[in-house]
Amino acid sequence: MTETELGAFLRAHREAVPPAAVGLPNGNRRRTPGLRRAELATLAGVSVDYLTRLEQGRDRSPSTQVLAALAETLGLTRDERIHLHRLAKSNGGGACEGAAATRARTVRPTVRALLDQLEPAPALVVDRSGDVLAWTAGFARLAGPTGLLEAEPPNLARYAFTDPRAHDAHPDWAAVAGERAAALRVAAALGDPHAALLAEELTITADARFRDRFEGSAALPARTGVERWAHPEVGELRLAYESLELPGPDEQQLVAYLASDEATAAALARLNDRHPAADHGPRAHRRQAGPGSGRISRMVSIVQNVAIDCSDAYALARFWSEVTGCPLHPEDRPGDRETQVMLPQGPVLYFNQVPEPKTVKNRVHVCLRPETSREEEVKRLQDLGATLVADHRNLDGSGWVILADPEGNEFCVLRSESDRAGTTS
User: Fold this and answer.
1) By C-alpha distance, which of 229, 269, 83, 57 is closest to 144?
2) CA gyration radius for the chain?
3) pLDDT tens digit string along 170-210?
């Protein structure tokens, strides 16, 4: 956060207000566009010296009353007033400044579940610097052919300014580029070090195309609007979008696209029909084991995604990967606080590392393959670290065995799917 972000915001908006808008004559000898500093100070009821110090960054803690008076005089919108307040807090060393020192590289399981519910609509989750953290299959169908998702991680601003394909993907490239620069400017102004580093990078790699948009306006990025996309398979699409802030310290944002006309709706339907199984994102719900896994998946019966709190997310995911014969997500690594095991029929086992985990019971049922002996399977699981909790096998071989994983989460081992009727959930 530079010392003049608050001042630059005030100065840009002061220079954007026509004198006639506040009842002053335009005059012929104005050297400054918009209002003079003295005019704004008089209208807002503050001294010219104090406004000068604010704009020059020499006063970093304006009162709420001063901010309100300046916002009212400048005619700021609600979003601009919120941004002004946050700039003042960040400029004064408040909570905003330290919050972005670390950032999450993933999204919460509930957010992933929400993305699933939005299918087949194009939707994505981004952080403040524009990194794309997760997306729907619908967004992969839309953006995949444009090259946007090829980087690791994909970034909206870097793609718009450094990838030549962005000009083809966005017929209104100038408008999209302005939005991307505005979003990055807001994040950097509020003290996000990752956004600031990316801005420095793009200032060098994208030169004036980025720099002029980043430095030349105080406009905030739009939360809603219409974007035109040019898709190589189905042609031009007009997509209305809504941006929703997700609660939490990481300030992630969910962006969802909808067809804005019948032609676009028909084109998206054709695209969905052609590519029904597009990828869901960097930590997506993959439908089968990765290449060369060499393991045979057991039948794991869960109706919906299951999230399990634990003290070591990677270690527990490794255990469940061995239990089910299904792979971890290929990007999961030791030390990750969020991991997942991808099951063959769709649902996903999520593991979240928390300080005080609570165990779950009978949320997962492992059904043995016909050629597998239950005795051998229970022994195999015990060798992996599971403990026997209860044995409910019948004389005819039906029934189930309850085991607990290394952190105490109980699950059932069934002879067949029909045995599920006797278990409790």
Assistant:
1) 229
2) 27
3) 999 999 999 999 999 888 888 788 888 888 888 878 878 89
DSSP E strands, 290-409: 299-301, 306-310, 338-342, 348-353, 361-367, 387-393, 399-404
The pLDDT score that the predictor gives to residue 165 is 93
For 270, the enclosing helix (H) or strand (E) is helix 262-274
Q: Can you tell me the distance from the alpha carbon of 253 to that of 242, in angstroms, rounded to the nearest whole number?
A: 10
Q: Tell me which of 333 and 122 has the higher pLDDT.
A: 122
Beta partners for 306? 349
- C-beta of residue 130 within 8 angstroms of C-beta of residue 143: no
More confident residue, 60 or 319: 319
> Whose CA is closest to 130, among 90, 96, 168, 158?
158
Contact 342, 280 (CB under 8 A): no
* Among 142, 380, 100, residue whose Cα is nearest residue 279: 142
Return the closest-CA partner of residue 220 out of 174, 256, 187.
187
Amino acid symbol at 248: G
Query: pLDDT, tens digit, for every residue of 361-404?
Result: 766 777 766 556 777 778 888 888 889 888 887 777 677 888 89
Asked whether the beta carbons of 48 and 253 are under 8 A apart, the reply is no
Q: Which residues contact 272 (CB under 8 A, 6 or more apart)?
A: 120, 138, 141
Q: What is the DSSP string of 153-177?
A: S-BHHHHHHH-THHHHH-TTHHHHH
CA-to-CA separations, 289 to 58, 196, 341, 352, 355, in angstroms, rounded:
59, 39, 10, 21, 31
Largest CA distance in the chain: 101
| Residue 271 main-chain phi, psi, to 5 deg | -65, -40
- Helix runs in 325-399, H state only: 374-384
The residue written with tokens 């530079």 in the block is 2
Would you say 111 and 125 are in contact if contact means Cβ atoms under 8 Å apart?
A: yes
CB 34 within 8 A of CB 75: no
Instruction: Report whether 97 contacts 2 (CB < 8 A).
Output: no
- Host H or E run for residue 306: strand 306-310
Q: 2 pLDDT exceeds 50? A: no
Of the listed ranges 54-58, 118-122, 244-248, 268-272, the one predicted with least confidence: 54-58
The 10 Å Cβ neighbour count of residue 7 is: 22
Q: How far is CA 250 from the centre of its chain?
A: 9
CA dist 161 and 166 (Å) reads 8
Cβ pair 179, 222 in contact under 8 A: yes
- Are 11 and 55 in contact, with CB atoms under 8 Å apart? yes
Residues in the chain: 425
